[in-house]
């Protein structure tokens, strides 16, 4: 199943229908605290946490807590040997993309 608007492909029609929401102006999910609106309910759920201060996602290795699963996954890299970001000039590798960006400055001479 392919999105007519952007060409993105999906295995199921239900996934395509879910995806189609990003192409509409409709924002049916509203935060009851600040009235922010969202196209997708999971985005509202992630947003609501900013009002509660809740950090429901905990790193099993160090106990650090996060508001979102994506932040926990990003953090998890510090506990692995994975270094997916590579400098094209000297081939130094980094776990976090911002560290690569800071490193590249030594080759370009640019100031941050």
UniProtKB/TrEMBL annotation:
Pfam families xref list: zf-C2H2
User: Which positions fall inside the C2H2-type domain?
Assistant: 1-28, 29-56, 57-84, 85-112
Q: What's a single GO CC term here?
A: nucleus
A molecular function (GO) held by this record is:
DNA-binding transcription factor activity, RNA polymerase II-specific
Keywords of the record, alphabetical order, are: DNA-binding, Metal-binding, Nucleus, Repeat, Transcription, Transcription regulation, Zinc, Zinc-finger
This protein's source sits in the domain of life called Eukaryota
Question: Which PANTHER family did the record assign?
Answer: MYONEURIN (PTHR24394:SF29), ZINC FINGER PROTEIN (PTHR24394)
What name does the UniProt record give this protein? C2H2-type domain-containing protein
- Name the source organism: Clastoptera arizonana (Arizona spittle bug)
